[in-house]
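Propose amino acids for all 297 sites.
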């Protein structure tokens, strides 16, 4: 049970408003609703009644409130004691998947430096396959990466999910007119495809997607850099499948165009990971802060 969700529950209960709680917690109202829904799902009960009369606690919510308040108070006291009496010092190595780094490394590092001013952060940006290996080999203390299967020695905390979009430059669309309508697999395979490197989840998805075409599969060019993939796509070197937040600005300005494909690409799920043999609280605190920042934006 996450303290953040309990804290949100207490705030909504005290203010009797999801909107007011979102404002005080510097989060969006959908993020507040998602936290309450997660808590209700975990407990298996309904905590609030929302109608024209406002927001009020159910009987189960009233029963939970004093316990939730107590746990929130204990959490705050614990963090206060740790930060005041034994400040975190030293360094921590954080691995970040290229997609998350492209979207979040600036806000995350800014927040971490403010929250932990005595910590030096070593940021490694890489593909998730490499980050997993580095974490297991004790070369990283925390990894923010695409969700993968791990051993029992790794703690995994869900972080976020992003839809993916097929996109192409206007030049590619002009050269391949059949990409402008509903695109089937054969049409999708005609231009070169730009992808993340071999053995990543996106690469495996493309391998399985085009496998039925056998010798008519597209040329597949890979690159480990999100920024380079975006550049190559905008230069018209091929079509590419990327997390939608990465291409949103380019779609809006028209330097990339979305393809309407018959098969909907799967979402990419990201998570925070740290080792169970790391007895420091810092990796967990950093992972929680990442969840808070991403979910509230």
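Proposal:
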């Amino acid at each position: 049970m996450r303290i953040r969700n309990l804290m949100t529950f207490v705030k909504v209960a005290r203010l009797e408003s999801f909107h007011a709680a979102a404002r005080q917690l510097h989060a969006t109202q959908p993020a507040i609703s998602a936290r309450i829904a997660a808590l209700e799902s975990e407990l298996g009960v309904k905590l609030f009644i929302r109608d024209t009369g406002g927001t009020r606690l159910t009987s189960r919510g009233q029963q939970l409130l004093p316990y939730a308040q107590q746990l929130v108070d204990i959490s705050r006291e614990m963090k206060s004691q740790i930060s005041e009496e034994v400040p975190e010092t030293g360094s921590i190595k954080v691995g970040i998947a290229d997609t998350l780094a492209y979207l979040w490394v600036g806000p995350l590092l800014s927040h971490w430096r403010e929250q932990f001013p005595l910590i030096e952060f070593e940021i490694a940006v890489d593909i998730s396959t490499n980050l997993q290996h580095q974490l297991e080999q004790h070369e990283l203390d925390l990894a923010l990466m695409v969700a993968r299967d791990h051993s029992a020695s790794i703690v995994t905390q869900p972080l976020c999910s992003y839809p993916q979009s097929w996109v192409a430059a206007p030049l590619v669309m002009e050269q391949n007119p059949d990409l402008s309508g509903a695109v089937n697999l054969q049409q999708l395979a005609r231009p070169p495809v730009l992808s993340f490197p071999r053995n990543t989840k996106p690469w495996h998805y493309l391998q399985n997607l085009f496998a039925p075409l056998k010798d008519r599969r597209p040329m597949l060019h890979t690159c480990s850099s999100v920024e380079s993939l975006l550049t190559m796509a905008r230069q018209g070197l091929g079509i590419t499948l990327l997390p939608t937040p990465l291409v949103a600005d380019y779609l809006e300005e028209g330097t990339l165009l979305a393809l309407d494909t018959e098969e909907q690409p799967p979402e990419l799920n990201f998570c925070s990971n740290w080792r169970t043999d790391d007895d420091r609280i810092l990796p967990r605190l950093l992972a929680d802060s990442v969840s808070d920042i991403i979910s509230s934006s």
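The chain has twelve helices and 14 strands. The CA atoms of residues 186 and 213 lie 8 Å apart.
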